[in-house]
Write a structure and sequence with these properties.
It is built from 8 helices and 12 strands. A hairpin with a 2-residue loop joins strand 6 (132-134) and strand 7. The chain is of the alpha/beta class.
Length: 228
């Protein structure tokens, strides 16, 4: 059973999320504060964390930073409605996806399933295309590992899927819609900005000079491509 840590200080909403995610077959652990979330994430293994950005005491950004410093546990961030700044902050610190309040629990369930699906280990036969090497960057879909010039690179699940898509077809221009389909399997409001932030973070991880990228290139008005 996949385990999910739900971090939300509003008790009623926390209970709703627990009940719904439990009905989908997940093991759910509830948490009402950032400090308790950080402690639990360090002491126990979770397959995914649903994390509210605005928490009393230790906020969601700091919790996400601590989780990222220790590993690649996927994070779905809950942010304030219509606050682009909140959304960007959540993605900047390594959230794999986000939901703006208020939201449908069914939509959250779909996002959770999408993130867990792309994080699931794949055997070598199921891994699309096998190992890819391009311009010093190597991607192993079966092991879900990335190296640059032989050194390991830590990526979120969303960043990994973006890199895999781009390096699978160097020179091919992907629209933002096509890229979000690779990550989530469907499009939603705000996906364009989501892709832009994921690409920005991906460049920080694999480019020698992120401000002057040579691998992940922008095609203005369309999307992105990997250099040939």
């Amino acid at each position: 059973m996949e385990r999910i840590l739900v971090v939300e200080d509003e008790r009623k909403l926390n209970d709703i999320l627990r009940d719904y995610l439990s009905s989908l077959g997940y093991g759910v652990v509830q948490c009402l504060s950032g400090s308790d979330a950080a402690r639990l994430a360090e002491a126990e293994r979770f397959d995914l964390i649903v994390l509210d950005l605005h928490l009393p005491g230790l906020d969601g950004l700091e919790v996400a930073k601590r989780v990222r410093a220790r590993g690649d546990t996927p994070i779905v961030m809950l942010t304030a409605r219509d606050s682009e700044a909140d959304t960007l902050l959540g993605l900047e610190v390594g959230a794999d996806d986000y939901m703006t309040k208020p939201f449908s629990v069914r939509e959250l369930g779909a996002r959770v399933r999408a993130v867990l699906r792309r994080c699931a280990p794949k055997d070598a036969g199921a891994a699309e295309g096998g190992r890819i090497e391009h311009r010093g960057v190597a991607v192993d879909p079966s092991k879900r590992t990335v190296t640059k010039d032989g050194a390991p690179v830590a990526l979120t699940s969303a960043q990994f899927e973006l890199l895999l898509a781009l390096l699978s077809s160097p020179g091919h221009v992907f629209t933002r819609g096509e890229l979000i389909d690779r990550i989530s399997g469907y499009q939603y409001d705000g996906y364009e900005r989501t892709i832009d932030v994921h690409v920005k973070n991906l460049r920080k991880a694999v480019e020698a000079s992120p401000g002057e990228p040579e691998l992940i290139l922008t095609v203005r008005g369309v999307g992105y491509k990997a250099a040939e």
